[in-house]
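Appendix B.2, paired examples.
Example (i):
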Amino acid sequence: MSSGTNGSGPAVGSDRDGAAGGSDRDGAAGRSASLAVDGLVAGYGEVIALDGVTVMAGAGSITAVLGANGAGKTTLLRAVSGMIKARRGRILLADHDVAGRSPEQIVRAGIAHVPEGQGVIPELTVEENLRIGMMSWRRGPRAGRVAALEEEYARFKPLADRRRKPASTLSGGERQMLVIARALLARPRVLLLDEPSLGLAPRVMAQVMDLIVQLSRERGLTILLVEQNARSALAIADHGVVLNLGRVVASADAAILATDVALRHHYLGF
């Protein structure tokens, strides 16, 4: 559905891939990598939230993860990023199993997670928030970090204008730009996005969706996109996975899922 999609919004600048070095992944930045979740079981206490979930995301593709509230979508991203421990199963980043690693180790391996809720630190400035994204870098020349920041300021021009302002002064759309830019500064190969359009005006939501397409097509990022807005997600995705009560009930090309009337009615709400 989206292999020929090209999008650009007014918030998005040029993409100078590989402008900065110093990542702690031995040159992993800029190289596409597949992500395979195989038989994943995870939960909270006695509650099993994911029951043998398998999801395949091809290198450089967008995979939409859909389902009703409580289906296990957010838990899937948390398990992949190490925020919760997988009880069983594998999480393969380019054939290397990262299950059981700490969140910091997973970031260094090449997976960045943008959680739901525009998680900025409001007391810090925009630039201080962005610098958090480079905490996984090895120590290196200051020029590399400056160049990396300038790359994201070129991509997100509203942030450049507000770099010295507290993050609390940003609009909802600008906060979403900030958390995505911060994740990109970790130089990931896989980007996990949890409800990036939540609470945004339709125009801003369209800009965010265009940005996701650009990051996949132009930068080669593998993107796992959790979205409540199934219609918008399937419109930009290559593949779609539908979860229900912690299990995969459908996995197919995004265009096929978008035209499956019964599936849309029972699980996707449109």
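Example (ii):
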Amino acid sequence: MSEDTLADEVNDPVATLTQIQVKDEYTPAEYGTNAQPNTLQFRSIFAVRPHLITPLEQLVRPTIQVVTLPRNKTASTTTAFDDFQLLDLFVMPFPDVKRTGFRWGLGTYWVFPTSTSDLTGNGAWQLGPAWGFSWQVERLKVAALFQQSTSFAYTSSRSRSVAQQQIQPILNYDLGRGWYLTSSNANWKVNLRHKSSTKIPLSAGIGKIWKFGDGYSLNTAIQAEWMIYRQFAPQTEQFTLNFQASLLLPQLNF
């Protein structure tokens, strides 16, 4: 793949592009506390070719996070592992993406209660549907990823019931020579329980694809994120900086 093709697909939630990602999300300003939270995220995206049992292209995306969260309204923090997440999408073969520029997928979203602190996870097994799409219009890509999770089992009596919808809107504009403008890190979270929180941030940033050979490339990006709407969320991010590096392996399919 060329640098520009990789720039189009690196943030596409339904692109069959194998990646290994490391991202750091640093929050210098947070509502309701003097602390400065941080999230270190390790994520892989495995592109699985069609097989006899699964005749569709498949994307398997496990995510592990180490989070630093405020204990209270002071600057005191705690660091722990967050819950393990797994997204499994099947990419639909119709319509023809080469002819229409449109691609979509359906699958499942899992959350496993692996958190090592009461402040990070919910102590609940969660499962729900997921779907995503992308639409390429010349240099502009419009995409989104939808993930819904509902708790169905709990690790203790203190575990919290969860019913949450996550929406990740994505805009990507190819500048040429591997450079691109993007808005892809904002993750809207709408909790569906009565008087539970809603958080809607917006993000914007720039990235660059560094191609070293046909088999592998490096993606680097920086984005800023602002919380533009919050309800029933007195303690949440106000401004966040996202730093990301991804190893891209376009020829690797499982």
